[in-house]
Design brief:
- This protein is mainly α.
- The chain has one domain.
- The chain is built from 12 helices and 2 strands; from the N terminus they run H-E-E-H-H-H-H-H-H-H-H-H-H-H.
- It has helices at residues 2-33, 44-70, 82-85, 89-104, 111-117, 120-132, 139-155, 169-195, 201-231, 239-261, 264-286, 292-310; strands at 35-36, 39-40.
- It has a two-stranded antiparallel sheet with strand order 1-2.
- Helix 4 (89-104) packs across helix 9 (201-231).
- The chain is globular and about 60 Å long.
Length: 314
């Protein structure tokens, strides 16, 4: 019986690792793929709005299945109190800005570089845990942060140009801002979810995503109302745009499931493998060339991510 349980757990973890790796690897590639002549023909605010709407729908469908199997209980009922709901607008707003920047950063970086620079959010998340939640960081984790910064910098070195880095300052600035926003939002969201651990994750996701829908609708109206009114909501959309939207929605759901049900090593494996897959796929799709600094930087980042996961302070 114990062997069957271990086998089932191993299979479940393997599926999560593979799914998260595929989703993470394809995320940057799909955003880059939707650009035409270096620009987005579609409105990025409409795409972001659809991502949040789809996540909201997926959470509701999953919740309906829970109700069918378990019935409506105190922990999975959708109606709630103002005190529980009032905390969700903050992370929803942070994710709004971070997710919009995710599109604009591709003006300055390629998909492999984006995948490497994304790991800067490990530093921001760790430091924010230390500052605001008084979570101790081990010496190994502090060393991992330094290695991570070194790896990201090394990967962006440009050996064949007079410019020191492949990525422009604007790209670095956006990557750092995204890391800070992701760190703040991640720490805040985790604190919300673990404040009431028995609460069904689909209910928690629904309230987070419904505020995301509202805020993204507001951003869409403010930024692109005239363009949408003149050309239509789906102007410039292609099949790759819809695939990207589905990918982003599933990625968001997958990350929340990993936070709730899997351990940190799942994210470590998926992050490290995703950097390699993104680089290899970009070579064929976009003519990306592997350089020695990029390979060395990616290896350093992978080691740093692993050390960070293994160096948790007790």
């Amino acid at each position: 019986m114990a062997v069957k349980a271990e086998t089932l757990e191993w299979k479940r973890r393997s599926v999560v690792i593979v799914a998260l790796t595929v989703l993470t690897s394809s995320q940057g590639i799909l955003i880059a793929w939707t650009k035409r002549a270096g620009f987005y023909k579609y409105s990025v605010t409409t795409a972001n709005f659809l991502v949040e709407l789809l996540k909201c729908v997926i959470s509701l469908v999953a919740l309906f299945r829970v109700w069918q199997n378990e019935g409506v209980t105190e922990d999975n009922k959708l109606n709630t109190t103002f005190d529980e709901v009032k905390v969700y607008p903050i992370p929803a707003m942070l994710y709004l800005v971070k997710n919009l920047l995710q599109y604009y950063i591709f003006i300055y970086v390629d998909a492999p570089s984006y995948q490497v620079l994304k790991n800067l959010n490990i530093i921001s998340t760790g430091v924010l845990y230390w500052l605001f939640l008084s979570r101790k960081l081990s010496n190994i984790q502090w060393c991992a942060f330094l290695l991570l910064a070194l790896g990201c910098t090394t990967a962006q070195l440009n050996p064949s140009s007079e410019h020191v880095f492949q990525t422009h300052m604007e790209g670095w600035t956006m990557a750092i801002i995204m890391a800070l926003l992701s760190g703040f939002a991640g720490v805040y969201t985790e604190a919300i979810m673990k404040k009431r651990p028995s609460r069904n994750i689909n209910v928690q996701n629904f309230w987070l995503y419904i505020f995301g829908v509202v805020f993204n609708f507001g951003a869409m109206v403010v930024q692109d109302f005239n363009a949408i009114a003149e050309r239509g909501f789906f102007h410039g959309y292609t099949m790759s745009t819809f695939i990207m939207i589905i990918n982003h929605a599933l990625s968001g759901i997958a990350v929340s499931l990993v936070m709730k049900f899997a351990d940190n090593i799942v994210k470590v494996y998926s992050t490290s493998v995703a950097m390699l897959f993104t680089a290899l796929l970009s070579m064929g799709l976009f003519g990306f060339r592997l350089t020695l600094p990029f390979c060395l930087g990616t290896m350093i980042v992978s080691v740093a991510v692993y050390l960070h996961s293994q160096g948790k302070a007790t």
